[in-house]
Design goal:
FAD (chains A, B); oxidoreductase (chains A, B); 8-stranded mixed sheet; two-stranded antiparallel ribbon; homodimer; AcylCoA_DH/ox_N (chains A, B); alpha+beta; flavoprotein (chains A, B); Butyryl-CoA Dehydrogenase, subunit A, domain 2; AcylCoA_DH/ox_N_sf (chains A, B)
Chain lengths: ~550, ~550
């Protein structure tokens, strides 16, 4: 399997989509000088190629294993993780006061992209640690921050997010795990959490579980949820009462152990409150919003990895003829259609996700408009980039033909690994609901109107202009629609607005002096062929819910 | 995993899309009386539910195994296969002179659909036998027919198709297997074939391999190919020199052993010519065209099975609230959007494939127009129905949320199994090339013009009328275009024409007196939401190849 980090495109997107120079102009991100960025991107590219990419297939074929002593990672992973810690790759985006490098979130995203393109399942571990760091940095007490952040920053300790329970998936408010005051300021945690990625492993000395639970007499639903910090190993070195009961047998992402965790089997699971009581849902969103961007980034990873593999295969595989001579399949028009689509969609997903990540940094710098832009872009980046990851991984199999269905080529792994990304961190349907439910109405619709206005200022391609107009009309209609009608249209609308955003950012890149030929051709393909497809969703986005509720549930 | 054959919809489609009464009015198909059809559909439904559906998961988790003594199927499969033979389910579509029931091809398709919805990998075995029967019935000598057809008809012996070699996949003409006259009228076969589905197994006493090979001094390319019959066990009971070297480790379809077969390792592999020397490619197309319809039918199987599982899960899984009360997820609008799309797409695929299968029977009855219609519909049925199978299986996972990614629910199996169908029997890209290369030009474009005219006569929904117009315009343009431009547009055009065909047939069904509410709602959804999406492909279908060739191969 070939692997090379997409550093050239990363840098181009940072320069011309994110406009990193504007962010680096602030004191807060003064560290992000062009030479530092270059060193970081090139360094992680080399590290990922040398240490993580070689473990890709073993991660899939061997996978993480549950044992009575906890989860064991495949051979090579602990060493490769240590190399990651020693290389300082975990510290990129962490504030300098906690031992981090203080670089922008978007630079950390680029680092995670490269790690995940090399080995997506493995990179999920640092990705989750980033979420835990965010939560503690925003909501932890000074003591908690001083105790946990330095070691989470290096990756010596890793983090998890414990939300889901068997009866509480998309409906987080239905969770039942309890947290009872122990009288010493700590809480006794009791309950079972499922789908906990890297909930146990042998990569690090400790795991910092962030756990949503209910205190006694808490109100029902999401308002009664608090966030707790539950270390696997207590600070005094004794094991906490947290047990990994099993790991899931999944279609892919085998190197990421998806754990069932049991807290407090022996009534001795100790946790500390993070932030105020009942502040759990707010803290969760701090973790989750940035985690959503990082899952969108996994869409970029799947797409980039699948594209590299398919291009290599298509250049190599001779089949049929062109101009009377035996030809590699890359010469055939329909294979080129697939490959160019893969490249264009990968670039589009990267532009969309990086753009949103850049808004995190702008918001950190106090830009209120960027904060709103981030809110509206987060569901698009999560859902659409993961949809792209899946589409591109499927095209990658198709380019390989029969060999794509045989596991040894690796094309199937990208496809299997990618399929979880539209599901976790809020299903893409939940993202669409978030877009039409909360985000369209932000600032009385001002956030949406601003986005449309910004796109319209730059857009030139006729189909893109039409799509922006269509998005505006649909969005305005949905702002006044009832909940069923809004939700009925939510997914087609999310796709339309995502493609419009991608088209806007692709066109912007193609206009740059010095944009290379691949970028210009990919942008042309995107604007001329992908954007018009999204216009085909207008009818669905304008339909009300009546057809969906024309049948009783039993008739399905 | 729930399973119930879709007999009600099958019957409805046979009545109103296929118009089976017209076919059964001919003496040749007099056996196809309404009560016989009902007995067949209900009978195979009961058989599949009782005998084949229960083996679905073992087929996936255990799978077919290679051993030094040949391929062993998982426990239960040999018995379930014997029950299939004893039930006479293999004989449905075979001519009465060979012990068959002489029912129409489309009725056999309905039987295969039910078997494959219960267990797609298993049903591939009878599907391949059907292809061997077709080839022998059309091209075999009377002796060959008398010897092989009765036992292939019952399924006591099974059939295979041996086309692919490592260097000869989509480019069949590149094959190198040799057939040298042995002086006694038979040929010594020598070569290696790959991707041979059910190339070995322990279900039947013998396997009849149909093998494409080159005689000495044969011309290069497809013109020099002949078809040979190579039994696993010779008629005298001695083993032939055919060896299964390995089976593939595939992403899915684990109960279908995909074999590497070595013919003539000991220079003692004996085969007999079927049809004339160099008649191989013609005979192959006899097998392959109907096999393509049967692969399209696998798209229906994937879609039907995935839909049933998703509907059952969505009715059962309580999450969130509606109207202030806890609700099963089937009540949520975006879940309904997914489920209704799954149902509508499944019905559309069934209508498309059955319609094409009905043309096989009309052509058998001497209807020349039906023969042309069949030719133009075959690539649509194969490619678009398998694309639907994949889309619906993916939606099935999404409806299951995180549980869809866990193998135990079975949703992932449908998704993994389905992924081969756009690849084998000619990749969907090859189907698109066939559509724009050969089929658009049939009878100087008359076959295409007839299809457009038939659709236009019935179509009423505004978006459908627009789509038919768009298809006509694109098709006419492509008839005069150069090869690169034709191929560049081939896939979007194939999808547009397929959706137009499905829309036409869905609308026809919705108009029927007595169409049930599910059909009417599914048709409305299809016409109002799916058809407009295909209009979004018009820009791609009207683009020439220039953007695809704007980059050199090395730039990808």
């Amino acid at each position: 399997m070939p692997f090379a980090a997409a550093t050239a495109d990363q840098r181009f997107v940072l320069d011309h989509v994110v406009r990193l120079d504007e962010i680096a102009a602030a004191d807060r991100f003064a560290a992000a000088s062009p030479d530092v960025i270059e060193a970081v991107l090139d360094g992680v590219a080399q590290f990922a190629a040398g240490e993580w990419a070689p473990l890709l297939r073993a991660g899939d074929t061997i996978g993480a294993k549950w044992t009575p002593d906890g989860v064991k990672m495949p051979a090579g992973f602990p060493e490769a993780y240590r190399a990651y810690v020693e290389g300082g790759w975990g510290t990129i985006g962490v504030d300098e006061q906690w031992g981090g490098q203080g670089l922008p979130f978007v630079v950390q995203a680029a680092v995670l992209e490269t790690l995940g393109t090399a080995n997506m399942a493995f990179a999920l571990c640092p990705t989750l640690t980033v979420g835990a760091i965010e939560a503690l940095a925003h909501h932890g007490s000074p003591e908690q921050q001083a105790t946990y952040l330095p070691r989470l920053a290096t990756g010596e300790w890793t983090g998890t997010m414990n939300l889901t329970e068997p009866q509480a998936g998309s409906d987080v408010g239905a969770l039942r795990t309890t947290a009872t005051p122990r009288g010493d300021g700590t809480f006794a945690i009791k309950g079972t959490k499922i789908f906990i990625s890297f909930g146990d492993h042998d990569l690090a000395d400790n795991i910092v579980h962030l756990v949503l639970a209910r205190t006694p007499d808490a109100p029902a639903g999401t308002r009664g949820i608090s966030l707790f910090l539950v270390p696997k190993v207590r600070l005094d070195g004794t094991p906490n009462d947290v047990r990994v009961v099993s790991i899931e047998h999944k279609m892919g992402l085998h190197a990421s152990p998806t754990c069932v965790l049991s807290f407090g089997d022996h009534d001795d699971c100790r946790g500390e409150l993070i932030g105020p009581e009942f502040g759990g849902i707010r803290a969760m969103f701090t973790m989750m919003n940035n985690a959503r961007l990082n899952v969108g980034l996994q869409g970029v990873q799947s797409a980039e990895a699948a594209t590299q593999a398919a291009v290599a295969y298509a250049r190599d595989r001779v089949q049929g003829a062109r101009d009377g001579r035996a030809a590699a399949i890359v010469e055939h028009a329909d294979v080129r259609r697939m490959l160019l689509r893969m490249k264009a969609q990968t670039m589009a997903a990267r532009a969309l996700v990086y753009y949103a990540c850049g808004q995190v940094d702008r918001a950190t710098l106090g830009d209120a408009r960027a904060k709103e832009r981030l809110e509206i872009m987060t569901p698009l980046a999560k859902a659409h980039a993961t949809d792209i990851g899946n589409e591109v991984a499927s095209l990658g199999i198709q380019v390989h033909g029969g060999m794509g269905y045989v596991e040894e080529t690796g094309a199937a792994q990208f496809f299997r690994d990618a399929r979880i990304t539209p599901i976790y961190e809020g299903t893409n349907g939940i993202q669409a609901a978030d877009l039409v439910g909360r985000k369209l109405g932000l600032s009385n619709g001002g956030a949406f109107a601003d986005l449309i206005a910004d796109m319209r200022t730059e857009a030139q391609a006729p189909a893109l202009v039409r799509l922006i107009d269509a998005c505006e009309a649909v969005g305005r209609r949905l702002q006044g629609a009832n909940a069923d009608d809004r939700h009925a249209a939510s997914y087609p609308f999310l796709t339309m607005l995502s493609v419009a955003s991608c088209g806007w950012l692709m066109e912007r890149q193609a206009r740059v002096d010095g944009a290379d030929r691949v970028k210009k051709v990919a942008a042309a393909f995107y604007l001329e062929q992908v954007v018009p497809e999204a216009l085909g969703l207008e009818a669905a986005a304008n339909a009300d819910a009546s057809v969906l509720y024309a049948l009783p549930a039993e008739a399905f």
